[in-house]
Fold each of these.
Amino acid sequence: MMSSVLIPVYKKIGPTFVRGKGSYLWDERGKKYLDLFPGWGVSILGHSHPQIGKVISQQARELIHLPNNLVHPYQEKAARELVKLSFEAKVFFANSGTEAVEAAIKFSRLYGGGKRYEIIMMKNSFHGRTFGSLSATGQKKYRYPFRPLLPKFIEAKFNDFEDLKTKINKKTVGVILELIQGEGGVNVADYDYIQKVSTLCRKNDLLFIIDEVQTGMGRTSKMFCYQHYDIKPDIMLLSKGLGAGFPVSAMLVKKDIADIMGRGLHASTFGGNPLACRVVLEVLKLLREERILSNVKRVGEYLRKKLIVLKERFGFIKEVRGKGLMVGIELKGKSYPIFEEVLKRGVIINSTHENVLRIMPALNVKKEEIDEGLNILEEVFKKYAK
Ligand SMILES: Cc1ncc(COP(=O)(O)O)c(C=O)c1O
């Protein structure tokens, strides 16, 4: 139904949801849903984790917001924790994925010093909806209505090193990519490809910008997806799971170059506020204390094994791919009707790129919850196989 007060950029479906706990949501009539795609990959600790709720309400009573020229205890602490878990870097906090990407684009312009400004981006990528990040997004359906976009973004084919090499010239300053293209259909970057891109960036003094907005924070069973590839980014972008539902994002830049983004060159009114940073610290603590990464590995493998069994049974499943708890099921036909039918039966997954079903559950999801969801998916597959 079309709202008379909301700009219709979203297709709203399903009932009105009023409550969530762990991997479940309840609608206003009390019907329970299993959510295997909580918050589009955001709610990594499940819905309304009690500890996150507690910290938010405590901090809200102490201090919600402070401008960035004043100091609070949690911003520096949150930055230190992120650096400890990743690489020697300095951190800029913002509020959403697209803002982290914008910060990286601006950083690249500074790094290029007016002489190098071309950024290589990938076909099928997704980096956000503001003008810079949209310009870095290699999908016509998002870009086309907004032409002309920001110039100097050069598209290369994902996982094709030879193609990338031909796109580099004197004006190139960096390469931006997702290690697993999420919106683009859960396409996993090859190990060798990323190794070669990393070496190419080193040799040519190019910034290797890794967008971990979707893959970061344990999603793929390592804290950050780049850690599967034995490389280090120059810039890493985080959001989604970083606040486990609270809006926050971060750009991490290699320490020895970070200071070129000097005083006044970038800012965010809300970025790095006490409430957001307290939540980031709590999320990191819970990931550790609740041994979330080993759950992602264990349950992720279980999920993929079960999906491969389904693939053997249903000829219309083309491929099952992903890492950890970021999984895509590519179909030979359209995926949206399956998503809708699964939702009707009380399970939330996602449909992307026309023919890919995406499952990205909470990182503390239980095997039994995966079984419950896959039983419904199997029922729907059976119906479609007829
Ligand atoms: C890889 C990636 N980068 C950036 C973004 C943009 O994030 P946001 O919607 O918070 O601006 C997304 C959102 O899905 C994403 O998946």
Amino acid sequence: MRVHIIGGGIIGLSSAWYLRKEGFEVTVIDAQDLKEGTSHGNAGMIVPSHFIPLAAPGVIAKGIKWMFSRKSPFYIKPRLSLELVEWLWTFYRSCSHAHVERAMPVLRDYNLWSRQLYSELASHPDFRFCFEQKGILMLFKEAKTEAEEFELADQAAELGLEAQKLSAAATQALEPGLRLDVRGSVYFPGDAHLYPNLLIRQLTTALKSQGVEFLTGAAVTDFDTVNGKISRLQLSTGQVVPVEKVVLAAGSWSAGLMKKLGLKLLLQDGKGYSVTLSSPEKRPGIPALLSEAKVAVTPMGDDLRIGGTLEISNFSPQVDRLRFQGIMESLPRYYPELNSGWQDLSKVWHGYRPCSPDGLPYMGFSKKHDNLLVATGHAMMGLSLGPATGRMVADLMIGKQPEVKLDLFDPARF
Ligand SMILES: Cc1cc2nc3c(=O)[nH]c(=O)nc-3n(C[C@H](O)[C@H](O)[C@H](O)COP(=O)(O)OP(=O)(O)OC[C@H]3O[C@@H](n4cnc5c(N)ncnc54)[C@H](O)[C@@H]3O)c2cc1C
């Protein structure tokens, strides 16, 4: 049987990998050329430490404050859109303790499973994508953030995840080669990182050598349906492709495609930026999140990537100069020896995180079209959750119960 996957980001490619392992014929269809999308320029962090969903108590108050600062890490571009209003309302309603309590153990298991699958992939002879498990430091400068991060560390410990509360001196001891200016940190030794551009390139090559077919530069523009099934995909190239099973893994664009099928999927694009410094003279050895600035700093191979901001932008391709400056200016506040003088906006990468309003992915078969499997909405954790999602897609296709419970991920839950 052949499965057609719409979208060749980390979710689509991981699905292709595990579907192929189960003996399916696979075609990946992508509107772009698989060279620079959201799954390429992200911060490369594999994060069991991220067990709190984006929708959580306290987030709205922070978000409102950030909306009024031109250099803050969060912004919603105002626009008249019923979908945006419904998304915001659902986000508001999801920011509850009950929601967080339900989501935490599931996100923990999903991320740990995915990290395990990454370490298996990394030992495969086809792959050298700089996977390293050195942990992640949550660096902070302020007492208020310290209290928040230490509370998170306690919650992590309750969930059985290792989290070390470190003083400034203990943090510096982990980064002996680079001066830090922080109040302290929480160290999550179980987190990992990799070089996403290498991963995506190598995964694509490996899949091609295993006979996976790629149709690139071909956007799915519409669907033909017969008796509750998708029968054909219409492509921007004019091709009409008969299908048996379809996986929708088109990231932030998935909502538009679902709409064509008469299905609602609340999803907004969370635009973010990154720059990659090639072999800088100085760089940290351990990836870090700069807690107040919400900036990710990741050593990748010999390079250093700095990324941040979440702008709900309606797919605006523009780089917001001030917001990007906000990212770069935060860097020397935590690492005084690192330069923030990056000016060349043409080298700034941007990508769109597929954000659901409760901060949880959409995973599962459609009830309306039973040959359609939805796999998207992974927001800030799509890279991290890629392999486990791909494995889940394959499990669902062969009728096996996946290792992680899917109850919270129903694509029709809103
Ligand atoms: C600045 C930044 C930093 C990040 N850091 C991290 C991190 O450290 N760790 C982490 O886990 N996650 C991180 N993320 C999030 C992560 O990058 C995303 O969650 C993930 O890449 C989403 O993957 P995807 O496959 O769902 O979507 P995408 O990578 O967006 O892939 C979707 C694909 O679908 C294709 N497509 C769209 N429409 C159509 C159509 N009509 N027909 C055919 N194809 C179509 C697109 O061309 C695209 O290639 C970060 C994101 C950003 C922006």
Amino acid sequence: MSSVRGKVCVVTGAGSGIGRALAVELARRGARVAISDVDDAGLEETARLLGDAEVHAQRLDVGDRDAVQSYAAAVAQHFGVVHQVYNNAGIAFRRSVLESEYDDYERVFAVNLWGVMHGTKAFLPHVIASGDGHVVNVSSLNGCLAQPEMTHYCTTKFAVRGFTESLRAEMLAARHPVQVSVVHPGGVRTNIADSALKKAKELGLPVTADDERRHKLYTKKLLRMDPAQAARIIVDGVEAGRARIMVGNDARLLDAFVRLLPARYTKFVAAVERRAAAL
Ligand SMILES: NC(=O)c1ccc[n+]([C@@H]2O[C@H](COP(=O)([O-])OP(=O)(O)OC[C@H]3O[C@@H](n4cnc5c(N)ncnc54)[C@H](O)[C@@H]3O)[C@@H](O)[C@H]2O)c1
């Protein structure tokens, strides 16, 4: 029997992609789920996919600290207990350091870093009180490997890894009944890259034909794993109590590559980038 059966699991960014697939997988294994997103239509569709499962669905911007605090209280009151929180909501963005505005960094940090920290802080007392808790924070392959023109994303994903590993050590040292996992997905076939391009256009940023071509190439060649498979790997990792959950061979191989050549891997990454630009 699945160890998440009967547990109350919170999933942020559940209106699409990995978050939606996580909610579906957790419900399939018998969990009760609290789902949230800023995308009402996406959230409604996820709730529909959860069928007969016990579901709490609410709009939530993870970057809004007060809203996340009230949300945690509302979920705890609704179910009477909270066992697991999956801080999954995230956004991508591509722009060089020279061209980036501080607003670009603030927008990405609000969701990818503060969102994870708000979700962890607000739910941690409930997760500890459950007596059998788990905090699951979604980083990325880009929490292990940095790529050019992705300083916003890479900074947050490396930080999520540091925050989560520190929290894990803290829970172990204090002997709290809480497991902590950081998740590093490789390429998963979701809306993340399309949403980033759409957002850049909405912001009136210059999007060249070259950017569009590179976007198509990136989406087609790199974002390949089915989100349902990614969710199964993540929940299996949670059930096994893994500290570090690598999702996909791309994540595993590139992580090993970075650890093998920590000072030189960026040269390789830059060469691949130049080749992709020349295609
Ligand atoms: N898809 C990949 O290849 C990949 C790889 C590595 C890591 N990840 C990470 O996985 C997580 C999920 O991404 P995905 O690929 O499923 O993307 P996605 O775009 O399909 O889903 C992300 C969801 O987060 C929601 N969201 C955005 N801003 C929000 C906010 N302020 N508050 C609440 N919800 C918000 C979006 O509405 C969307 O429903 C992210 O943290 C992402 O960085 C994805």
